[in-house]
């Protein structure tokens, strides 16, 4: 009888000490302003990584260390012709604050320099009289990161030229909000 009581006591202690994994969602949300030079260089992009919110040096463009890039009003993702990674993008209707899940299928990739995942002009409206452009309202970007294992939702809050003199702007300023899912799930 003492052996049975000892067995149940040890079994209860063992169950009570079992580690329970934390199942909480691990998201990183950021608000970022990036100023991109508006120059005649048509090959260099300003590269961005969602996992830590950093701008990546152009010298690191041939790596998986960045997710998407910006030049003027053109965006690239780190895949195929855009870079060596597995990044993809979807641009669709939706509200950022109420969107809680990223799509897991249907991502577009930069398969050719003439066929980008995010089509230039698809994400903004341009006014040729004032030479201004504005992000389209009610639109969300979804990204699969360059490692192919994480999801991001992003909304472009503003994009426009910094004040300039003459015919050509010097800087385009982008302000965007994003949520990066660090645990690999598609839920934010």
Keywords:
188 residues, mainly beta, 4-stranded antiparallel sheet, 1 helix, globular, disordered N terminus
Describe this structure as you would to a colleague.
This protein is mainly beta and 188 residues long. The protein contains one helix and eleven strands. The protein has one helix at residues 2-16; strands spanning 27-37, 46-49, 54-56, 68-71, 74-77, 88-93, 124-127, 132-135, 139-144, 151-161, 171-181. Strand 2 (46-49) and strand 3 form a beta hairpin. It starts with a helix and ends in a 7-residue tail after the last strand. The relative contact order is 0.21.
Distance between the termini: 53 Å
The major sheet is characterized as: 5 strands, antiparallel
Oligomerization status of the protein chains = single chain
Number of strands: 11
Cα gyration radius (Å): 22 Å
Instruction: Give the helix level as a range of percent.
Output: under 10%
What's this, in brief?
This protein is mostly beta strands. It is 8% helix and 36% strand.
